[in-house]
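#dry-run=false #mode=assembly
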Amino acid sequence: NAGVTQTPKFQVLKTGQSMTLQCAQDMNHEYMSWYRQDPGMGLRLIHYSVGAGITDQGEVPNGYNVSRSTTEDFPLRLLSAAPSQTSVYFCASTLRAERNTEAFFGQGTRLTVV
Amino acid sequence: KNQVEQSPQSLIILEGKNCTLQCNYTVSPFSNLRWYKQDTGRGPVSLTIMTFSENTKSNGRYTATLDADTKQSSLHITASQLSDSASYICVVSYFYSGTYKYIFGTGTRLKVLA
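#status=ok
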């Protein structure tokens, strides 16, 4: 049981490049989400999914796409990287989108866009 | 506006000492309040989850309190250890538009010195 696994751990992109951040969980959780963490700010929700085939936008979705073709995987795609997307990205999962379920976070992906 | 504010921003204490971290929120309608510990370079790990009716919840040397009337929470760390050095994040959730939303505080960075 690996929990939530994110890859890569570090990435440097040039402005305009695209890439996919991978997130996988092996706990059969329905709810998965992507956050970004910037200095001096709390984690902010980018996109989330309440189950396979269902995704929705969070607080800061612009410039990112997601899909949820399986329960286990929830990749985050940067369409055309910009320096403003330099951040640490965290994927999280919970069993269900219910009130008191515990959230499990991945180790994070540190992305730098130059 | 839904907000979560934490204080102090950073804190340095000696090993073995106790400390208390504060969290004030203006989130409505309140669902629950969570405390997370985030080690440097790692994802947040859940410490406690408290609902409206819970005043105190403990997890080992960590004790969280909640005053729903004043919208304040605190995290008390007893007999601190070097491994307690981390950021502590307060998260308040609310129910909106069919799903639960989460507001993250910016965290308190704790440094425990030998």
